[in-house]
């Protein structure tokens, strides 16, 4: 009799847990725009799953449609120098190099594959802020970098963030999030320069992390 009761109790415990998990799978994270329902995310997943396993990257990439960053979206999907999808993942950047520990993101090339590694502290960032960040990182497609390339990438990021806020204003609601703060800082520089790279270029030149970069690199010959 005790064995039968134990079996019944186990079944009683197991079923609610199963239902709870199924319900959780239907929940859309709060950092996704309202447009991205569970049904919509499932529809776009086949298009973006080659870049990685995190749904927030699928949403972020999809948000780049009809923005200046659509070039970056296509580059991440395979229209880049490697002709392969860029792999995106959250990664402790300090494991690559201690100097990268505080970076927000890092473009990386290993063999014939391009990667974009994003600091795990941004896992809960609004998808729109990650979209702007990806628009920047997708421009780094080889082992070369320069002041001109970073200036272009930062300006792209600022421009995309402005467009994201116009389409998805909820993306900027959490102004205390470090990634949103980064994007808002770039936006202010972009607007201060009358939507040019004037002040962004000055900021890049003053960045100690770029102190040893050459002025130009392949594809980015002009400042």
Explain what the structure shows.
This protein has 223 residues and is mainly alpha-helical. It has one domain (2-210). 48% of the residues lie in helices and 7% in strands. A three-stranded mixed β-sheet has the order 1-3-2, with helices on one face. Helix 3 (55-63) crosses helix 5 (127-137) and helix 6 (147-167) crosses helix 8 (198-206). The termini are far apart. The relative contact order is 0.11.
Annotate the secondary structure layout:
Elements: H1 2-25, H2 38-48, H3 55-63, H4 70-76, E1 87-90, E2 105-110, E3 113-118, H5 127-137, H6 147-167, H7 178-192, H8 198-206
Parallel strand pairs: 1-3
Antiparallel strand pairs: 2-3
Count all strands and give the number.
3
Number of self-contained structural domains: 1
Evaluate the radius of gyration: 21 Å
Structural class: mainly alpha
Regarding quaternary structure, what we see is single chain
Average pLDDT reading: 89
Alpha-carbon distance between the two ends: 82 Å
Q: Percent of residues in helical segments?
A: 40-55%
Q: Biggest sheet, strands in spatial order? A: 1-3-2
Keywords:
223 residues; mainly alpha; three-stranded mixed beta sheet; 8 helices; 3 strands; 48% helix; disordered N terminus
Sum this structure up briefly.
48% of the residues lie in helices and 7% in strands.
């Amino acid at each position: 009799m005790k064995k039968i009761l134990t079996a019944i109790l186990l079944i009683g415990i197991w079923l609610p847990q199963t239902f709870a998990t199924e319900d959780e799978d239907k929940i859309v994270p709060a950092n996704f725009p309202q447009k991205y329902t569970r049904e919509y995310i499932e529809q776009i997943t086949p298009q973006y799953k080659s870049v990685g396993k995190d749904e927030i990257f699928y949403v972020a990439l999809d948000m780049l449609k009809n923005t200046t960053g659509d070039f970056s979206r296509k580059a991440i999907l395979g229209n880049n120098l490697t002709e392969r999808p860029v792999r995106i993942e959250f990664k402790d950047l300090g494991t690559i190099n201690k100097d990268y520990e505080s970076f927000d993101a890092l473009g990386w090339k290993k063999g014939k594959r391009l990667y974009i590694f994003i600091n795990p502290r941004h896992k809960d960032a609004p998808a729109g802020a990650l979209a702007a960040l990806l628009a920047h990182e997708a421009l780094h497609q080889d082992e070369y970098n320069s002041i001109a390339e970073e200036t272009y990438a930062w300006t792209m990021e600022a421009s995309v963030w402005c467009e994201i806020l116009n389409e998805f204003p909820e993306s900027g609601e959490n102004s205390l999030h470090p990634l949103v703060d980064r994007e808002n800082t770039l936006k202010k520089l972009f607007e201060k320069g009358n939507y040019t790279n004037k002040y962004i270029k000055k900021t890049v030149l003053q960045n100690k992390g770029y102190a040893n970069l050459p002025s130009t690199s392949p594809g980015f010959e002009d400042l």
